[in-house]
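Field: COMPLEX_INPUT
Field: COMPONENT_COUNT = two
Field: RESIDUE_TOTAL = 621
Field: MODE = joint
Values follow.
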Amino acid sequence: MSAVYAKRPPLGWTVHDSIIITRATILASFRIPEALFFQLIQPVIFVILFAYVFGAAIPIPGADPTSAPDASLYRQYLMPGIFGQTVAFAAAASTVGLAEAMQRGIIDRYRALPMSQPAALIGNTIANALRQILALTVLSITGLIVGWRINDGIWNAILAYLLLLLFAYTVTWVGAFVGLSVRNSETASTAGLIWIFPLTFLSNAFVPITALPTWLQYFAAYNPISSLVLACRELFGNPIGTQPDFWPLQNPVEYTIISCAVVIAIFAPLAVRKFRTAASR
Amino acid sequence: MIHGVPSPPVTADLAVDAHGLVKTFGDVRALDGVDLVVPRGTVVGLLGPNGSGKTTTVRILATLLQATAGTAKVNGFDVKSQADDVRRSIGLTGQYAAVDEFLTGRENLMMFGGLYHLDKAYVSERSDELLATFDLVDAADRPAKTYSGGMRRRLDLAASLIAKPGILFLDEPTTGLDPRSRIGLWNVMKGLVAEGTTVLLTTQYLDEADQLADDIVVLDHGKVIAHGTSSALKDEIGGDRLEVRLAREDQTSQAVSALVPLATGEIVTQDGLISAPITGGSTTLIEAVRALDAQQIEVDDIALRRPTLDDVFLSLTGHATEDETPAPPSRSRRRGPVRR
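Field: COMPLEX_OUTPUT
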């Protein structure tokens, strides 16, 4: 009996193949409980660090100028920042995962299959973005424990979470590109992280933009993490502080969506091109 | 619509038909005009040291790399313009066990079957069949991470076979395996060949090419330097040699003169080992024993040695095959005089 091929699925092979890769990637991530645990515990540690160590020292401008810095107010301010930082790190999973897959010959195998070639990356990026749902759940619970609240209704909160997932999906494409560009998985685990740290700290995630030197304010204002975090603060009804007069900070939801679309439009084709010419070793 | 592998053009009596393949990486000319033909149903061994261009050749044929120049058809399809048809026709097993180690053996096979766009019920049945063939039934539902090296390679090979490709590319399939696993994998490959699968095998292990390949293509520095059956290549560098080790070294010259009438060429003496080119095989061996005995020469060891592909390679290239890589696990085979 010769091989029996399937019918072309209604949504096409790219969707079909992407679902297979997504499922396999998520399934695999649950088979490494240690990695999953540390991935979840890291943002929780950040919450505790910032809420209890730095929190009392960082005033929120415009919140209430007459009173002393208020630690519980800062925790409300902080949580969207931690959400933003956490989803930004989704990129690292794609970087490391794809660099390892390349080193271990799995990318070669995908490329020698009659599958949709972009699907290998679409599946990987979707899986790594979806994994953030679990991280955001754990973080939200941690936040509720330390005094963070959703103050502006469920629909706005859902929109905030969707923006966070969109952002996670966006950075996984950057991560995929980085992972396919580095030579080995050891490099990937550093190169995958090195750009995320400055990006998250040069933003309003932990301190108000107005606290930064003027020249850095420009960078921070146009940093999509700032608009993402600000959008979440507004949508969750958390304190936002005063915002300098930059368009992204006046229209954070719009700017976040636009910048995600632009980054995907640039990095998805770049990553797919890297994939098509990827060589193992 | 359910369809099989796209039927190849009628002229495709060759599984692989490549001409003038050139591949440059910057200044490095990895392939420098390679011609390669693999008739259907045969096993061709691509033999050469590291960096000779074996893997580059396979990667071009498997659509993973584009040649700088030259043309290649696999199953009658052009590797450049009909890449998807080529991919449907081949199975590729690379130098790594390219399976997802966090998925079980069965999950891996189901995943790859899905990515070949095969029917789900077919993949499920085929997976059972392959797991049984490759002795992985007990391990089928364990993550591949827990498998031994040999088991992973078998799973990798099973994944390549899920769509029953007629053409299999095996790129150093046994590199890094222990002798037992290598022999196990050889038996699996022999079984596939017996069923009519065409195989292009790259290896740097001469005994592997000897064991499996009908035809051997020797590559060095991106060029084909020899081509033929294993025995033809061996004949090319001369036939059998008689090797004699004496109990007493002071009898060496006496022994050499006793062997001169039997030798077909110059007799070489090195480190107490007398080596004489001969024809006539075991008949000559018996004559040699008689001749030495008649002179009362004490012999420690006398043997007929067929040339190995080591010798072939050395005589073709002036360097041994294993320059930069560890030797394969040694077996009880008489080694050539060429050692690292």
